Structure prediction request, 219 residues.
Amino acid sequence: MPITVLLVDDDALVRAGLRAILEAQPDIEVVGEAADGAAVIPLVGKVRPDVVAMDVRMPLMDGIEATKAVLRTVADPPRILVITTFEEDEYVYGALRAGADGFLLKRARPTEIVHAVRIVAEGESLLFPPALRSLAAAHGNASARSALAKAALTEREGQVLRAVARGLTNAEIAAELHLGTETVKTHVSAVLAKLGARDRVQAVITAYESGFITAGADT
Prediction:
């Protein structure tokens, strides 16, 4: 089955460009378009996409509020890929904190766009670049520190979280730590559950905001 994508951007040219790039791939199908976040909820219910590629800045409802609305109201919600002009953007970080699963620069090359959609759809690796790591570290807070302390991660779970933060897939983590892939999946699930994180992005945000991982450090 192809990866189905809903495009949400107030710029028709951006939507047309993304559609052309994605539909050139045999494993990706664009199933709908919207010009504002306010239209996302009914469209998601209608076309049931695997991934919503959503602009972070739109006139009526921005990507942050639209992300919150999707995750709050849609059962079994799609993965959300934020589309942005600048990676060092509080709006982008806000969308990721709200539950988005990754981000895509509008100036990205076609191969990078396709890769981003596949990564987010699979959910087994991470789109979290250095600029956003620095933002996360700068947002250190007591809530994240408390969540990390209460999680009481084992040494192995801490190793897995650091590997997740580096963007490694389960298979790559397994190879690095000399574990089975299923064992890694179990550890990842345990880390997410202990941190109360919806997905890898939320877990990594907590890791940085709590100081468990520091920006610029060798994770």
Summary: The chain has eleven helices and five strands.
